[in-house]
Model the fold of this input.
Amino acid sequence: MHADALAPADGARLIDGVAVAKAVRADVAREAAALREQGIVPGLTVVIVGEDPASVTYVRSKEKASVEAGMKGETIRLPATISQADLEAVIDRLNADATVHGILVQSPLPKHVDANTVVRRIAPSKDVDGFHPVNVGKLLIGEKDGFAPCTPAGVQELLVRYGVETAGKEVVVIGRSNIVGKPMAALLIQAGRGGDCTVTVCHSRTRDLKAHTQRADIVIAAIGKPEAVHGDMIRPGAVVIDVGINRVPDA
Done:
């Protein structure tokens, strides 16, 4: 999404994701402290295979955030040459470890590793990414005891914390990925806080995207393509959440 194309008009309000993230982390820290008083130290273990530069950066930030919140943040670094069986054995060990409450296997994985099998190997109760089919199913039917993928859950939190009324609103989600688009739609159609929306999911095969976005009260762009949404596609008063992170030429 081009920043100039969607420059705030007079009276527009910028949703500050950094500020909301800071507030959420403070809430998590308080909850973690309460658990520690009961003798429970929440533990997140991140597994990274290989040395992909972006993945290394992401994993380092996750470990740092966990520790700052008073949680146990552990990173297991494995060689890119690890076999499927050996990686699954690591996951089995973490599944059986009562001090590990969350398991996150960083993507992407080497091409010789079957990522779907790895996801299904993680115990659903520890699948903090929310990618296991059990958690996907729980999200779709509205059960609250599973994990929702963090990005769509974060978008919903932005809407709630900024007091955006969602009940009965028309929402257009641009993108149908299993990581953002589909779970985003599933969250927004559920009854209750941050939900009760009428949702349209658009994607690369959608005809006349502009016709959809112009009637939306809320537009969530997660299409993986920069500058896909421009100002003339958004009606006055609409809320726009830009999920995408894209590399673009910039002097």
User: Anything to note?
Assistant: Residues 56 and 96 are 26 Å apart (CA to CA). The first helix runs from residue 17 to 37. Confidence is low (pLDDT under 50) at residues 1-7.
